């Protein structure tokens, strides 16, 4: 039986997919995973700019109908970013509450779940000030993965180590991965996926 792998999240998952084509995977880590798993059915329902509350708002229409065997949720950087560019903060408590509501749905209970930890590779002095806010959201993702027995892709530490002194090589703006960054994300996800 063909496994259906569904990916939901923000622009890092969306990665320029054609939203008018349900088969479009974008040009990021999801497409790279699909190339490695030709036997799987891959569905990408990422949407640029999404925060956890946005996933909640579209969960019933975009995620539930996909009936995933494996559901990957990758969200959090916009929950931090909007605090600093629009003065529209999401507390760690609100972020956690949104994720808990998503995880307590029938579609999740019927799937293997993989949570991807949000990352930031500061390329400006301002972005260094975002880390504390993001750390709280990373802790939420890590804690929920442990609590529900989900797979966890620990991106922040992996990409920080890979970037070394040149974070822009992995994420030119600190957030959106380069082709090299997308490859690292795909490889980290595949390691978790294949470990089960």
Automatic annotation (TrEMBL):
* Domain SGNH hydrolase-type esterase residue range list: 7-184
Q: Which InterPro entries match?
A: Ester_Hydrolysis_Enzymes, SGNH_hydro, SGNH_hydro_sf
Q: What is this protein called?
A: Lipase
């Amino acid at each position: 039986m063909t496994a259906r792998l569904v990916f939901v999240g923000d622009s890092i998952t969306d990665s320029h997919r054609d939203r008018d084509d349900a088969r479009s995977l974008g040009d990021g880590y999801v497409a790279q995973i699909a190339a490695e798993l030709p036997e799987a059915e891959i569905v990408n329902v990422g949407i640029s700019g999404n925060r956890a509350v946005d996933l909640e708002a579209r969960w019933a229409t975009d995620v539930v109908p996909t009936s995933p065997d494996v559901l990957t949720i990758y969200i959090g950087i916009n929950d931090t970013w909007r605090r600093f560019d629009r003065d529209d903060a999401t507390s760690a408590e609100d972020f956690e509450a949104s994720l808990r509501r998503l995880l307590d749905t029938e579609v999740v209970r019927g799937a293997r779940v993989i949570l991807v930890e949000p990352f930031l590779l500061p390329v400006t002095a301002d972005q260094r000030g975002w880390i504390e806010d993001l750390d709280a959201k990373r802790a939420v993702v890590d804690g929920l993965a442990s609590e529900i027995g989900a797979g966890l892709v620990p991106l922040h530490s992996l990409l920080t180590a890979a970037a070394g002194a040149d974070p822009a090589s992995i994420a030119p703006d600190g957030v959106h991965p380069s082709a090299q960054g997308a490859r690292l994300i795909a490889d980290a996800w595949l390691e978790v996926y294949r470990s089960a």
